[in-house]
Amino acid sequence: MEKAPQVLPYRIEPWREHLDATAFSSGMERIDRYIKEQTKRDLSSHVSLVFVLTELDSNIIRGFYSLSALGIVFNDLPKSVQKRLPRYPQVGATLLGRLGLDLAYKAKLLEDLGENPRLGEFLVIDAQKRALEGATGTVGSALMVIDVLMPTEEEQAAGVRDPMTFYTEYGFLPFPDDDRRVFKPIRTIEQEYGEA
Ligand SMILES: CC(C)(COP(=O)(O)OP(=O)(O)OC[C@H]1O[C@@H](n2cnc3c(N)ncnc32)[C@H](O)[C@@H]1OP(=O)(O)O)[C@@H](O)C(=O)NCCC(=O)NCCS
User: Fold this and answer.
1) Whole-model pTM over 0.90
2) Domain containing 82 — which CATH number?
3) How remote is the CA of residue 57 from the centroid of ligand 1, in Å?
């Protein structure tokens, strides 16, 4: 008998005013400040869109990411990517600006389920899907780009890891002259979804 598809008890939806981020803590102050204090401003000025992860029956924000439009200077791209694109001075891209998960919630799920719920993975996969939908359905965009934040020394001392390998594990590659900025061609995401 075929296995029924697993229904996740979470959803990822656009940020709304009544959602609650008061207790949100990812271990990185810049990420926490963004969801608590800067999201509303960025949304009202259309700088970014913010998508939040909640349990189906709760309004507490357990994770989130933001997406916005970005222009990348053609010559900043690796030669291997340049070869596959028309030579405009700038290339449209989709920026994953901020992403984070509430640590206490992850710890609670680890304890309750006895295994890692992989919610960070759930967020990054959802972000790629939305970037692909936008790029193929609304505004052209050739790349998904992430500026990978480095935890401060204090945060590292408290156990927060540099998230760089989190992104490279999902196929994001560093820019030649900026090793904190990573990208994945939308075409690659499209192929990954085609294969899924
Ligand atoms: C980065 C973050 C979203 C990952 O969430 P998560 O739920 O712990 O991630 P997952 O459990 O889905 O992890 C998927 C894989 O990435 C690895 N990983 C998770 N966090 C990582 C990190 N900070 N650094 C390196 N690898 C990491 C996991 O070990 C796992 O690897 P595996 O496939 O070998 O088991 C979360 O740790 C977080 O919010 N960190 C603080 C904020 C932050 O760094 N945001 C990114 C700023 S650009």
Assistant:
1) yes
2) 3.40.630.30
3) 25
